[in-house]
Amino acid sequence: MVKMSVDPVKVKELQICTSSNGEKRESWKETDELQEDHLGLTAKPKQPKPENAVTIAVSTRVLFRTELEEKVFEQHGVEEYLRYQIEHENEPFAPGPAFPFVKALETVNARLRELYPQSEELFDIVLVTYNHAHVGIRLINTINHHNLFIERFCMTGGSSPIGYLKAWQTNLYLSANAEKVREALTEGIAAATMFTTDKRTEVSETQLRVAFDGDAVLFSDESERIFKAHGLDKFFEHERANEDTLLDHGPLKGFLEALGKLQKKFYAKGQRLDCPIRTFLVTARSAASSGIRALKTLRAWGLEIDEALFLAGAPKGPMLEKIRPHIYFDDQMFHVEGAAEMGTVAAHVPYGVAQKHNSGVGE
Length: 363
Hints:
Elements: E1 34-36, E2 42-45, E3 54-59, H1 60-63, E4 64-65, H2 67-76, H3 78-87, E5 94-95, H4 99-115, E6 123-129, H5 136-145, E7 152-155, H6 162-167, E8 172-175, H7 178-186, E9 191-194, E10 208-212, H8 222-230, H9 232-241, H10 253-267, E11 277-283, H11 287-301, E12 307-310, H12 317-323, E13 327-330, H13 333-341, E14 346-348
Parallel strand pairs: 3-6, 3-8, 6-7, 8-9, 10-11, 10-13, 11-12, 13-14
Antiparallel strand pairs: 1-2, 4-5, 9-14
C-alpha cells in the first residue's frame, strides 16, 4: 500500500480572503483583454469572470510539496510556522501531485486563446490555502518560479474556504483535507482529496487527460447500494431491469460537463482529433451485464466520453498506467491506492455508500 500523506510572471491581481462568511465578492476588475507592460510588450491576458470560466480551486498542499512546513507547524505551532515561512520566502516549493494537472489546464487555455482570442471560456485556477497572508509572498515567488499563471488567491487564515468556493462558482476543488472535501461535496461543489505519493508516472504535456470512475462519481450510488446490500447477482439483475432508466447524477457530473463544453469549442474548429482534452470512463462494471445503462445515461445527458473501459472487476491500476491521466477520480480508497501504486495521480471522492465499507469489488 502506498503511503499517502524561467521568466518571472508578474502577478497583476491578488485576492486575499481573511475569513469565510460565504458572501459573494463583486470586485472583479474590468480591464482590457490584453494588457501592456511599461515597455509596451503584450502581457498575459486578463482573468476571465467566474461566471464564464471553468474554475478549478487547488489547495497549496496538493499544488506544492509542503511536508516539511507541515512538520514545523505540527511540532512548533503557528507562530514558529509563520516565522519559518517568512525566513524561507525566497525558496520555491517543489511541485505537488496537482502540479501536472494545473500545467495541463494552462496548456488547454493557450490553445483556446489561439482559436478564440476574445473568449473567457477558459480554465481559471484559484489557489486556496488556510495560510495567513504573510505566507503569500512565498507562494507568489513559487508561482513565478514555476511559470504558472495563477492570479486568484484565497488565503483564509485558518477559516473554512467553502463560502468563497461557492462565490467563485467553483467547478472542482482539490485538497489534501478530506474533511473540507466532504464539506464541499455537501454544498454541491465537485471535490476530491489528493495525496502525495513517491511514485508518479510521466504524463502528457500537450493533452489534458482526465479519468473518472462511474458509480458515486459521475453517477449516483444507486446501483452500488444494490451491490453492497445484495451482492453481484442482484446488482446485475437490477441493471438489466433498469437498462432504460437513467442513472441519477453523481458529484462530478458537472465537471465532466464543463470539460465537454470546452472540448466542443475545439470540435467546432475541426480539431476533434487534435483536441487537447481527453476523457476516460474506467469502471468496474461489466460491459454486457451493466455497462449499457451507464452509456445510455451519458448519451441522454449529452455527454461524450472519449474512451470507456469496462473492467468487470479487474484491477484498475494497470489500465490507468496505460492511460496516464493527469488525475483519476474514484469513490473507493481501495482503487485510489491501487492506482497510486502504479504511479497514477488518483483522487478520492468521499461520496456514497462505499464510504461505509473499507473495501469491495464494485465501483
